[in-house]
């Protein structure tokens, strides 16, 4: 019979394993989806079985299906089940599935905390390893917080296999839970000198990753890394360290000089390493380049080091020349690497790269997009006033040729980046730039319409001299708007019209024919544009209208003005009907205004001045960060309530009113038309006054108020060209090429003039500095801009707060890791141990007792063996804490060594599932004691050994083969100021009585001169409550338990308890591991269970400072002891 | 390293390992786009690719593409070396590995990868150590399953 069951389950297990599934999928190519859906149904059946092997098989198949793109999130709980299997075979599969399928929002992750913790402390290193690997993929902030301490302990594991993994995963933990960085850092640092190369390499990896993001916090580690660099034999580690120094040296230039020598010693090794990689890469011929790659690697590092050594430029020059060979090679990988290295050199030595412009431009023609993008990047840094036009011209050609929108878009942004970099530094002719921008609008399907638009706006606003030209161009663009909007696919580019309309409106005084533009802006086709653009159209039509009126002022024939009004009145209703609220509101407002004006016009009243006043005033560019930089005046509290906050109920009452008031009739809107001129003037005056007194108002800076001279540059504008053969070009727009020619002519002329002057000068002064002009073509400074261009800087508020930290992305997880690591660790910073026992455990008693200890320790007898034990009975805390100081021999000149031990009793309480009774009994006889050792002296402590005198009842678990009195070696050493945790397992037979165990800790204290053997005695106190585990219990189960009659009862009374009832309950829950079953008024029932399964039930009642506790338990001795301990807890408060 | 993908010339995913937690939807989207981009590249082109703000390093071995995504600052050659080491490890473990080995023993391929990389960083640069760890874990698994195989034999004789 039994065999039949076994047979059945095995048969089922082999219904379909992973191989069958894969084979099946390959055989069902045509109806894969159908096949898989039947497979998933089978898997669901398999998951319902009790047999863990079947489940594991199912989960394994699911992992495969997940990779194929099927949703398996429904099986998350089953994955957790397989993870918690005791067999490594299944655990491995479970963790693999979890690492593939879980992500931060998977809610079952919460359930895994205890399982992972159990696996982390498993005696089998592969269980631990598999848990660490899995955790590295799905660690969440919660998991990181709860497990940080466990992982930190594993960093000192005896097996390097575990240490290595624990060190690496700490990086993930830091990212998720930055608070863990400081407490864990000393140990991480320690691992840099681990005897195992794998662990060492892991520690270097983690610290380098951390340091790369926040180098300044790691400067103090430089000597250590320096040592490692000269001693390490691992190439991977070396390269990491060299990169790290690349990040550190800019902060500490002295480092650079020190590094050169060891680096040159390393070059041969790195060369061999790289030649090996290149050998794998593809062909053997590549190996001959490996010296170059190694060299490049060093050069890029040297560059970052070179801030301290200016005479390095010769070798850089040589390097760039060698790079050229690399880039010219036919192998694409080398080409790419060459360009990459070039761009690094460019950052510090732009001059030496610039001469290779031809090569870079050549790379733009490469078939490989990666290479083209690299080349583009380089171009960005290579431009100068002299070659900007040429480079951009070349790029424009590429734009036309480019296939695929991504690359073309990339080109477009690069062109704009190149031109606008450092405040348009390299642009000498803005007319050229505007025409480039206009040409870019021809691009089909670009996503960057808004980018072009913002450039147009920026240039028109900030370069005042260009406005006339810009307005003319924009007017043409508006006139040809149909070219841009014709295809709905190209909607990205219609953003440009936003800029065009705004520029034409705002600077309409420069328009040659405002009436025509007005007409163009009010065409019915405009209504098909996106809402925000229409809104700008409507608003700026009003501005144009004002300009038209103004231009007709004084003109006896008022027909044009009246035509304009009529045009507005005819066309605006179209916008009033717009679905877009913004458009509708603006249109109806302006329509009413125009109607009113028309009435006045018919009465021959002069209105233009008043209308213009609506749009009077200059708009200055404001820096995007201006608002952020406004300083907060003294005494202003932005968080304070202005009015008392309304209460909840009030706001609810108010709500309907608010909705009602929003629905005010619209016709009251155009009220500003009713304001007469006097009133307007008065208000304007008042506003000016107010602005003068208002510290928040951003006043125009004096520079922007300068009167700009109108330059005669507009004459350059060539005769309008209509080129019908090229339909994509916007007709009537001048081509940028023409500007290039004009500019060249102008420069030549200038040069000629200059030469003349120079000659004159040279005649006067024989030994002038003429050499410079002679030797080559013009230098940078010689090129004067075409116009006297004054680029208005963006405005910032007065006395803006200087802050440089706003460059960093606040979402960057590494920002949180910018933590000072040299500061000593505060007690509050220690990692939480076992989250379900509150974090308070950690507040070691050191802080409050330290002062006392120091003073009491000073007078000491010579014998180093004479120990003084000091026991602070802090039994009101559920855990026993003991503090010991070792005595000190006088040779140590009163230097204190005090090793502090905090004993924390913790239990394995994983087996909450009641169905597995066996495991429970097994765990029930075990108690785990975690000890935190903190070295408080300034000497090194090593070879620590822990021993406890076993009693009949409680025994320390020792490794197999050791005698009952052997001590346990603690697997770590303690440098000064470092603390570490070790765990010891005790076997306890009876738990009904509290116990004390005597023990000793021996260790070697090592300092520069000597090392001494020291010994410390201590006592471990196992209270009865420490055997209790918080276990939730339902009230019905609780009632049954009480009714069963198996329980013996006992009771105590506590007098003079002066605390609220819920505090009292919380205290019992916290200190004595109970949970509240039910609470009615001043009466509550509570429950807890011992590790050996004793039920403990309490009925707590309070009446005027007297608390009575009636308790029931199946073990009267245990109950008596627990009650005594509860009594003690309350007698101490 | 942010993630590693193995896919065939037909664009079928063979293995994926993510070192950053992303939702399935994002993973799928990234995979789809990246596989397309890489497959569209010609054989002679370079192994490096800038994609979004990541640097993609890929290499083709027989019919399989090995593709790693790293952040900008990581050394490209080292990433290539990581790919190569992984291929060597697979080769040693399976004995001249082919695509089918990875398809049918995909969990083994993951285990090897997990011993070699952890959290996106190379955890063990010695090939010998990686293989040793895998062999020992496999041995442990076999011991555990010993009883099970005995049962299986018993059942088959019963039949």
From TrEMBL, chain A:
Indicate, by first and last residue, each region the UniProt record lists as having compositional bias (Acidic residues): 792-809
- In this chain the AP-3 complex subunit delta domain maps to 675-822
Compositional bias of kind Basic and acidic residues = 654-690, 740-755, 810-840
User: Which Pfam family, any one of them, does this sequence belong to?
Assistant: Mu_AP3
Q: Has UniProt tagged this entry with the keyword Transmembrane helix?
A: yes
Explain the purpose of this protein: Part of the AP-3 complex, an adaptor-related complex which is not clathrin-associated. The complex is associated with the Golgi region as well as more peripheral structures. It facilitates the budding of vesicles from the Golgi membrane and may be directly involved in trafficking to lysosomes. Involved in process of CD8+ T-cell and NK cell degranulation. In concert with the BLOC-1 complex, AP-3 is required to target cargos into vesicles assembled at cell bodies for delivery into neurites and nerve terminals.
UniProt cross-references to InterPro entries, sorted A to Z: AP3_complex_dsu, AP3D_dom_metazoa, ARM-like, ARM-type_fold, Clathrin/coatomer_adapt-like_N, Mu_AP3
Q: Where are the transmembrane segments?
A: 281-305
Q: What is its main location?
A: cytoplasm
Q: Which family would the database say this protein is a member of?
A: Belongs to the adaptor complexes large subunit family.
Query: What domain of life does the native source organism fall in?
Result: Eukaryota
What is its membrane topology? Peripheral membrane protein
- Where do the record's region annotations for Disordered lie? 637-709, 729-876
Sequence ranges of Basic residues compositional bias = 756-772, 862-871
- Coiled-coil residue windows: none
Q: Where in the cell is it found?
A: Cytoplasm; Golgi apparatus membrane
* UniProt keywords, alphabetically: Acetylation, Coiled coil, Cytoplasm, Golgi apparatus, Membrane, Phosphoprotein, Protein transport, Repeat, Transmembrane, Transmembrane helix, Transport
What name is this protein filed under?
Answer: AP-3 complex subunit delta-1
Gene Ontology cellular component annotations, sorted alphabetically = AP-3 adaptor complex; axon cytoplasm; endosome membrane; Golgi membrane; presynaptic endosome; terminal bouton
Q: Does the keyword Transmembrane apply?
A: yes
What's a GO biological-process term for it?
protein targeting to vacuole
Gene name as annotated: AP3D1
TrEMBL record, chain B:
**GO MF entries:** clathrin adaptor activity
Membrane topology for this entry? Peripheral membrane protein
One record GO biological process: intracellular protein transport
**InterPro entries per UniProt:** AP1_sigma (IPR044733), AP_complex_ssu (IPR016635), AP_mu_sigma_su (IPR022775), Clathrin_sm-chain_CS (IPR000804), Longin-like_dom_sf (IPR011012)
Q: Which Pfam families match?
A: Clat_adaptor_s (PF01217)
According to the entry, every stretch annotated as the AP complex mu/sigma subunit domain falls at: 1-140
| GO cellular component terms, semicolon-separated | AP-1 adaptor complex; clathrin-coated pit
Q: Does the UniProt entry include the keyword Protein transport?
A: yes
Could you tell me where this protein is found in the cell? Cytoplasmic vesicle membrane; Golgi apparatus; Membrane, Clathrin-coated pit
Sorted alphabetically, the keyword list is:
Coated pit, Cytoplasmic vesicle, Golgi apparatus, Membrane, Protein transport, Transport
Q: How does it assemble?
A: Adaptor protein complex 1 (AP-1) is a heterotetramer composed of two large adaptins (gamma-type subunit AP1G1 and beta-type subunit AP1B1), a medium adaptin (mu-type subunit AP1M1 or AP1M2) and a small adaptin (sigma-type subunit AP1S1 or AP1S2 or AP1S3). Binds to MUC1.
Q: What's the family?
A: Belongs to the adaptor complexes small subunit family.
Query: What does the UniProt function comment say about this protein?
Result: Subunit of clathrin-associated adaptor protein complex 1 that plays a role in protein sorting in the late-Golgi/trans-Golgi network (TGN) and/or endosomes. The AP complexes mediate both the recruitment of clathrin to membranes and the recognition of sorting signals within the cytosolic tails of transmembrane cargo molecules.
Protein name (database record): AP complex subunit sigma
Species name for this entry?
Answer: Nothobranchius furzeri
Q: Which gene encodes it?
A: LOC107396045
């Amino acid at each position: 019979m039994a065999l039949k069951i076994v047979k059945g389950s095995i048969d089922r297990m082999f219904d379909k394993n992973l191989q069958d599934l894969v084979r099946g999928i390959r055989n069902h190519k045509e109806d894969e989806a159908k096949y898989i859906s039947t497979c998933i149904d089978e898997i669901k059946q398999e998951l319902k079985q009790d047999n863990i092997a079947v489940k594991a098989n199912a989960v394994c198949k699911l992992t495969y299906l997940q990779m194929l793109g099927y949703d398996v999130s429904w099986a998350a709980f089953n994955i957790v089940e397989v993870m918690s299997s005791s067999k490594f075979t299944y655990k491995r599969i479970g963790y693999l599935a979890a690492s593939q399928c879980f992500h931060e929002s998977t809610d079952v992750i919460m359930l895994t905390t205890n399982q992972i913790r159990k696996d982390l402390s498993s005696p089998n290193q592969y269980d631990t390893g598999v848990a660490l690997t899995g955790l590295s993929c799905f660690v969440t902030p919660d998991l990181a917080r709860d497990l940080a301490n466990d992982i930190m302990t594993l960093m000192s594991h005896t097996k390097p296999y575990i240490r290595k993994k624990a060190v690496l995963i700490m990086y993930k933990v830091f990212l998720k839970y930055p608070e863990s960085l400081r407490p864990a850092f000393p140990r991480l640092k320690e691992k840099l000198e681990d005897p195992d190369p794998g662990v060492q390499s892991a520690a270097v990896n983690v610290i380098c990753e951390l340091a790369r993001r926040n180098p300044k916090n790691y400067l103090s580690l430089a000597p250590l890394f320096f040592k490692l660099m000269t001693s390490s034999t691992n190439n991977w580690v070396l390269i990491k360290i060299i990169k790290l120094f690349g990040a550190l040296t800019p902060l500490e230039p002295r480092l650079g000089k020190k590094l050169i020598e060891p680096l040159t010693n390393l070059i041969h090794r790195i060369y061999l390493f790289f030649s090996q990689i290149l050998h794998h890469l593809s062909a053997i011929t590549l190996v001959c380049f490996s010296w170059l790659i190694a060299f490049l690697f060093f050069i890029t590092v040297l560059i970052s080091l070179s801030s301290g050594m200016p005479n390095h430029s010769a070798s850089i020059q040589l390097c760039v020349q060698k790079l050229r060979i690399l880039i010219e090679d036919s192998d694409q990988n080398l080409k790419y690497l060459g360009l990459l290295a070039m761009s690094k050199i460019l950052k510090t030595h732009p001059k030496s790269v610039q001469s290779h412009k031809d090569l870079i431009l050549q790379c733009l023609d490469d078939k490989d997009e990666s290479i083209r993008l690299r080349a583009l990047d380089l171009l960005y840094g290579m431009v100068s006033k002299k070659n900007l036009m040429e480079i951009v011209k070349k790029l424009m050609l590429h734009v036309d040729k480019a296939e695929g929108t991504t690359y073309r878009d990339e080109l477009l942004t690069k062109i704009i980046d190149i031109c606008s970099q450092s405040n348009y530094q390299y642009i000498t002719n803005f007319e050229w730039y505007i025409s480039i921008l206009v040409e870019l609008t021809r691009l089909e399907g670009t996503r960057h319409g808004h980018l072009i638009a913002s450039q147009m706006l920026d240039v028109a606003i900030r370069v005042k001299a260009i406005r006339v030209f810009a307005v003319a161009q924009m007017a043409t663009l508006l006139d040809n708007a149909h070219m841009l909007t014709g295809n709905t696919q190209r909607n990205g580019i219609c953003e440009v019209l936003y800029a065009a309309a705004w520029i034409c409106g705002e600077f309409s005084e420069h328009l040659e024919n405002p009436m025509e533009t007005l007409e163009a802006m009010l065409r019915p086709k405009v209504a098909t544009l996106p809402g925000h653009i229409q809104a700008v159209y409507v608003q700026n039509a009003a501005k144009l209208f004002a300009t038209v009126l103004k231009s007709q002022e004084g003109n006896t024939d008022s027909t044009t003005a009246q035509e304009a009004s009529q045009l507005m009145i005819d066309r605006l209703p179209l916008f009033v009907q717009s679905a877009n609220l913004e458009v509708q509101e603006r249109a109806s407002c302006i329509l009413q205004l125009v109607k009113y004006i028309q009435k006045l016009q018919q009465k021959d009243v002069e209105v233009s001045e008043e209308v213009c006043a609506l749009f009077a005033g200059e708009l200055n560019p404001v820096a995007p960060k201006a608002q952020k930089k406004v300083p907060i005046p003294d005494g202003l509290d932005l968080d304070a309530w202005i009015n008392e906050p309304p209460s909840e109920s009030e706001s609810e009452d108010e709500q309907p009113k608010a909705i009602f008031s929003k629905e005010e009739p619209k016709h009251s809107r155009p009220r500003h038309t009713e304001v007469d001129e006097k009133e307007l003037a008065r208000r304007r005056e008042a506003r000016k006054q107010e602005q003068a007194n208002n510290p928040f108002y951003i006043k125009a800076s004096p520079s922007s108020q300068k009167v700009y001279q109108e330059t005669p540059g507009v004459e350059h504008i060539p005769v309008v060209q209509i080129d019908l053969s090229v339909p994509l070009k916007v007709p009537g727009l001048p081509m940028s090429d023409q500007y290039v020619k004009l500019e060249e002519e102008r420069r030549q002329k200038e040069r000629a003039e200059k030469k003349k002057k120079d000659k004159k000068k040279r005649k006067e002064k024989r030994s002038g500095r003429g050499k410079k002009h002679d030797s080559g073509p013009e230098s940078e400074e010689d090129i004067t801009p075409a116009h006297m261009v004054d680029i208005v800087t963006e405005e910032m508020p007065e006395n803006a707060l200087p802050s440089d930290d706003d460059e960093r992305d606040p979402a960057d997880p590494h920002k949180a890791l910018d933590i000072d690591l040299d500061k000593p660790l505060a007690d509050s910073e220690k990692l939480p141990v076992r989250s379900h026992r509150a974090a308070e455990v950690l507040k070691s008693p050191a802080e409050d007792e330290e002062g006392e200890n120091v003073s009491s320790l000073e007078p000491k007898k010579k014998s180093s063996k004479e120990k003084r034990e000091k026991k602070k009975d802090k039994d009101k805390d559920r855990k026993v804490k003991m503090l010991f100081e070792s005595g000190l021999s006088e040779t140590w000149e009163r230097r204190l060594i005090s090793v502090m031990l905090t004993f924390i009793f913790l239990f394995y309480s994983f087996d909450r599932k009641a169905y597995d009774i066996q495991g429970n009994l097994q765990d029930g006889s075990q108690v785990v004691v975690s000890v935190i050792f903190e070295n408080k002296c300034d000497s090194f402590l090593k070879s620590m050994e822990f021993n406890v005198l076993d009693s009949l009842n409680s025994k320390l678990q020792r490794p197999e083969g050791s005698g009952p009195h052997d001590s346990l070696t603690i697997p770590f050493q303690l440098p000064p100021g470092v603390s570490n945790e070790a765990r010891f397992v005790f076997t306890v037979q009876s738990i009904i009585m509290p116990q004390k165990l005597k023990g000793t800790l021996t260790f070697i204290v090592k300092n520069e001169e000597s090392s001494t053997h020291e010994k410390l005695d201590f006592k471990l106190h196992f209270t009865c409550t420490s055997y209790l585990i918080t276990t939730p219990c339902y009230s019905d189960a609780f009632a049954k338990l009480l009714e069963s009659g198996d329980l013996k009862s006992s009771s105590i009374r506590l007098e003079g308890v002066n605390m609220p009832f819920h505090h009292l309950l919380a205290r019992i829950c916290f200190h004595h591991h109970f949970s509240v079953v039910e609470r009615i008024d001043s009466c509550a029932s509570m429950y807890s269970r011992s590790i050996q399964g004793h039920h403990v039930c309490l009925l707590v009642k309070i009446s005027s400072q007297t608390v009575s506790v009636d308790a029931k338990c199946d073990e009267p001795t245990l109950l008596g002891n627990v009650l005594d301990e509860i009594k003690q807890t309350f007698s101490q408060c | 390293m942010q993630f590693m993908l193995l896919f065939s010339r037909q664009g079928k995913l063979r293995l994926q390992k993510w070192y950053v937690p992303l939702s399935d939807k994002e993973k799928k989207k990234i995979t789809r786009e990246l596989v397309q981009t890489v497959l569209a590249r010609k054989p002679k082109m370079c192994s490096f690719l800038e994609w979004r703000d990541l640097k993609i390093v890929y290499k083709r071995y027989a019919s399989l593409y090995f593709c790693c995504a790293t952040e900008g600052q990581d050394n490209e050659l080292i990433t290539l070396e990581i790919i190569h080491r992984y291929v060597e490890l697979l080769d040693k473990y399976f004995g001249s590995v082919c695509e089918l080995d990875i398809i049918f023993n995909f969990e083994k391929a993951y285990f090897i990868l997990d011993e070699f990389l952890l959290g996106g960083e190379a955890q063990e640069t010695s090939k010998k150590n990686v293989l040793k760890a895998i062999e020992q874990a496999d041995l442990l698994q076999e011991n555990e399953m010993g009883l099970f195989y005995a049962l299986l034999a018993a059942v088959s004789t019963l039949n």
